[in-house]
Amino acid sequence: MTSEPITRPHGGKHYRPRVRADDRYRYEQLREWQAFDLDTKVAWAHARIEAALGELRNPSLAFSAGKDSTVLLHLLRQHKPDLHVIYGNTGIEFPECVKFARWLRDEWRLTYHEARPEVTFWWVVENYGWPLMGKTFGVGGVAHKSSRERFFAELEERGELTGQYDIQAEVPISSACCTFLKERPSEKLQKVLGIDGVFLGIMASESRRRMFNFLQYGEWYQMQSQKLWKSHPLAIWTDNDIWAYIRRYQVPYAALYDMGYHDERTGEWKCHRRNGCMFCGMDIRFPDNHLAIMRRTHPKAWRTLMIRKGLGQVLLQLRFALDGHQMDMFVQQSGWESVEEYLEQFPCVFDRM
Length: 353
What we know:
CATH class of the largest domain: Alpha Beta
Number of strands: 9
Mean pLDDT: 88
Strand content: 5-15%
Strand order of the largest sheet: 1-6-7-5-2-3-4
Radius of gyration: 21 Å
CATH architecture of the largest domain: 3-Layer(aba) Sandwich
Low-confidence stretches: 1-16
Shape: globular
CATH topology of the largest domain: Rossmann fold
Number of domains: 2
CATH superfamily of the largest domain: HUPs
Order of helices and strands: EHHEHEHEHHHHEHEEHEEHHHHH
């Protein structure tokens, strides 16, 4: 299976929204909006939806089967029941989310489409690397392994193979899966359907990156590279708002969010707070990331990923590299030689980097 290679940073050199100066917001404005009560935020979202629909001829919703995009779908159907709903099925979605997306398709009689990639996640991993440590960590964003090898070889010749570069020369890390499994299939389907605008359930509160994007571009902008308008009606909402809306209007959601475990040390209930791709390790730097939760909620799939698919060995390489190889001494003392031994004796070593 082949596909057009990518050797440039994520999104390409023309990946920039077209923004008017008066579309940009200050941090104080965002904080003021985020402090609104739910009724005001719902009205804010409806106003943005109406404004966008007034400008668009054939819009769609980027649907992930997550709680945020489900709430946005509930809002959008009050304005346009026949809206195109494009579910990005990457092939490594949580089974609970795939089941929910198709159940909702039938229950709500949606104008539903599934965007599927031409390549598999495993092909991307083999040719580009694993999705680990966040999008800003991977050198070149989505550089092919042949380009990476040349890049690191040149750095080593100049004596500049240090810091993150030194780590990534050892460990294959890339965000290419987002491009191949999510972006390209959805963009291709959007062109087939003649989509001129996309609604997304993205919130500024989700991350610093999304907060800064909102402050710079606002909730309504056009992508120059795609000639496509994008609308973020939930931009000022928070997770608490999403769950409050779900409870108030009895909106269904994927069973994944109810799956978790009780932490034996703290007694705290820990569960999946976001859906996303099942095998993604982009958030592995943070506590209670979804791979760590998945170890308890989907143990069979987790062991397959770690042992048979090889992520366990890659994470050990990454941990050794991040620790300046000091952990090698621990390995020598313990006598452990395989990932299986770590899984049996010290599985939490894979939970967070």
